[in-house]
Amino acid sequence: MTDLPRRRLRTTGPLAVRHGRLPRRRATAAALKLLAAVVAVCLVSVGSVAAYAVWDVARSIKTGVQLPGASGPGHTQGAVPDVSAIDGGVNLLLVGTDTRSDQGGAYSSAAEQDASSGVGNNDVTMLLHIAQDHKSMMVVSFPRDLMVSIPKCADPKGSGTLPAESYAQFNTGLSRGGLGCVAATVTAMTGVQIPFGAVIDFKGVSAMSNAVGGVSVCLATPVKDAYTNPPLDLPAGTNTLVGDAALSFLRSRHGVGDGSDLGRISNQQVFLSALARKVVSGGVLSNPVELYGLAKATVQNTIPSQTLTNPTTLVQIALALKDTGLQNMVFVQYPAMTDPENPNRVVPDDTAAEPLDKALVADQPVTLTGTTGRAAEDPSATNSPAPSDAGSTPPPSAAAGAPATSAPSSAPSAGPVALPSTITGQTAAQQTCTKGNN
What we know:
- The protein is α+β, with helices and mostly antiparallel strands.
- It has a domain at 31-213 and 282-352 and 385-415: 2-Layer Sandwich (Nucleotidyltransferase, domain 5).
- Helix content is 27%, strand content 20%.
- The protein has helices spanning 31-40, 48-58, 110-115, 173-190, 204-211, 243-251, 261-281, 288-299, 311-319, 350-362, and strands at 90-97, 122-130, 137-142, 147-150, 153-154, 161-162, 165-169, 196-200, 215-219, 223-225, 232-234, 237-241, 302-304, 329-333, 336-339, 342-348, 366-367, 376-377, 417-418, 425-427, 433-434.
- Helix 1 (31-40) runs parallel beside helix 7.
- The radius of gyration is 20 Å and the shape is globular.
- The model is unreliable at 1-30, 39-49, 73-81, 99-104, 111-118 and 382-413 (pLDDT under 50).
C-alpha cells in the first residue's frame, strides 16, 4: 500500500492538506539529509584530500536559486587552497519537497505521480542556525499544516511578483513561489535573514543512510505503518535503519506518536540526534572518503541557493560545527496550537514563539524546559543541559574566496535563553526513543 492523498497536489498554487489522523499523504523527511551532511563533514582534514573531494562534489552541484536579499558567487569549481570554518554565523533553510517527479522506483506509478508532481510542496522545512561564535546550533522544524501569512514572492518563472496571502498553508510556499518564497515566509515569521538554502527530494534519504552505514534508533514500542513504502514493521528496542527503511521511518506519520504531523517532527528529531551522535563519536568524522561521499550524496539530490553553489561553502559551514558539542545542538519544533478556524490545522503560538524568534535574531543559545514531543520520550527524563563553552575555540577565519553571506560576526548579546515549556524538542546529546502509534 502506498501513502497517497485524496487529491492531486498542484504546483500552481496552495492546496489544503489534511492534518492529524485523517488519511492523507505524508511529506518527505529528505530535508534531514543536508543537515546530516553539514554535521558529517565537520572534522574533515584539509589539504590535497579536501581539495580533490571538493572538486569531486562540485561536479554534482545543480544550478543555484536566488534567495531574497542574498547574493552568491555563482557556480565555482576552482582549486581549493585551504578549507576552514566559515567566518561568523549561518542561517540555512532546508526544504524537503514531496514531489514524485524523477524519483523512480516505487514513485513512478501513475498513482504516485498523481499524488504529487512538478515542484511539489515544502512538507518538511527546517531552519539551521549556527551561532556566530560556533558554540551552539539550533534546528527549527516548521509544521507543514501551519496557517500563516505568505508575503509577496518573486515568481520563479520570471514573470513578476506573486501576490501575498494573509491566510495560507505553510507547505504551499514551495509550489507557490519556489525556495525563495519559503525563505521569505520563514523570515517574515522569525525575523531571521536567510542567505543559504536548498530544496531536497526523496531520493537522497536512502543514499544518506547508506553513506553512514545506517542509523541506529531506539524504539520505546513497536512501530508499524502500512502507509509507507516500504511498509514499516519495526520491533521495540534498537533498530538500525538503512536505505528505504530509513526513508519510511522518517516519512511515517500514522506509525508514530499520535499519528499527527507534529508527532512526526519529534520522530525525525529522534533519528537526527542519533545520526549526529554517530557522526560525532562513531568514526565517521575521521574518514575523509566517507565524509565527502556523504556530501556528494547530498548535492546530487539538492537544488541549492546560489550561495551554496561553491562547494567550499558547504564544507566551511560544516566545519563551523567542529567544536560545538552534542549538548549544544538543539532541535525544536516551531510552537503551534490548534487553528480556531479549522481543527485540522494549526497556527503559530505567538506567545511561545516570541522568545524563540528573539533568540534566533539576537544569536543567543537556548535551553529547553519542555518535553521531547508527541512521538519521542527521554528514558533519562532530564531536560537539555545549558550550552557549554567547554571544548570550544574561537572560529577560524574563512578560506579565501568564500562568499560574504554569513551572519555578522559580532558576539551574542546575552546568555542562554530558557524557552517556554510549550516548545518541544531535544538536544543531540539526549538519547531519546520513538513511541509507536499502535
